[in-house]
Each structure stands twice: as C-alpha cells, then as structure tokens.
Amino acid sequence: WGFTATPRNWFFGLIYGPSGVGKSVNALRALPNAYFVGPMNGIAALATSKCGYMPKYVDDSIAFIEDVIALLTNGKFPKDADALVVDDLSVLAERSFRRAEPAQRKGTNNNYAPFVFIANLLYNLRDVARYCGIPVVMGAHIQPPWMDEGVRLKGGPWLPGRIAPIHFPPVTDFCYKAD
What we know:
By secondary structure, this protein is α/β, with parallel strands linked by helices. The chain has helices spanning 23-30, 42-51, 65-73, 89-105, 113-132, 164-167; strands at residues 12-16, 35-37, 57-59, 84-86, 136-140, 142-143, 146-148, 151-153, 156-157, 174-177. The strands form three sheets. Strands 3-2-4-5-1-10 form a six-stranded parallel sheet. The protein has a two-stranded antiparallel sheet with strand order 6-9. It has a two-stranded antiparallel ribbon with strand order 7-8.
C-alpha cells in the first residue's frame, strides 16, 4: 500500500475477498509494525512463510468484536504499534452475533434487534478506533449478491445480519474488493 501509518493519516478500512487472494499477506507487508489480531496461527504462519518475518504483536486470543474494542479502550494497545490489523472481521462479527442473538431477541417482537446490535457494534469499533487515533485495516470474506425481502443486494463484505452488510461498508474510509 506504500505508506506508514501516522496520526496524520488515520484510516479505518476494510478489504474483502475470497480466501487466498492475499488480504492478510498484503497487510503484513504494508504494516509490519501493526498489532495483528487473527485466528490461531493464521497470521504467524503467513508472516513466516510468505513474508519472512514475525510481527512483534500477534494476538490470537481475540474472539469477538467486543474484544477488539476492549483492546483499544483498556490502555493495553502498545504505543509502538502503528496500526491495528483485524485479520478476519467476518469471523469475529459472526461470533459476536451468535453470542448476542438470543439476548437481543428475548422479550421483543423486533426480529431485527440482533441485526441492529451487530451493526451498532461495528459502528462502535469505528468510533473507538477514531477516538483513540489508531489506524485500522480489517480483512473480511466476500458475500455474493443476495435477496432481502424481494430486494436484490449487490454483495460485498460478509457480515452477519441484514443491516451491517449494507450500512457498515459506507462508514469505512475505504472498502476494497480483493480478487
């Protein structure tokens, strides 16, 4: 991507595409001093095999979007990490959605409550990152075109629910499709 993250070029971006097209490897090469959040052994294996180095910060203990928000707000984000890379936003969002869905539906006739919850959680992640001044790049899976109550939607990053896939990408600073 050709630049180093500084407070002057803060960004909150999303790159989505099928597995194996280089989303994670590009993040490793562009942001070698970032704090990487990803699946168990995913980033570590790619860093050593494809990039020839191991990032200083690789955290595979993050399981939910709430954990990413906590990382940014609990004062433990390292000062020398110049960005945050969320290797698989689709997986973290799905886990957060599944965990919250029963509670969001309980006692309400609003079938959209879990969808609103996950969208708000993603908006909160963006707001917290912006407030903290931490540049963020997220990788996500791809969602093909789909129908929602008779309306054809063109696809994009795979996020759970009926609201986040439509309304979250436009609030990012960039949303690129990798293929």
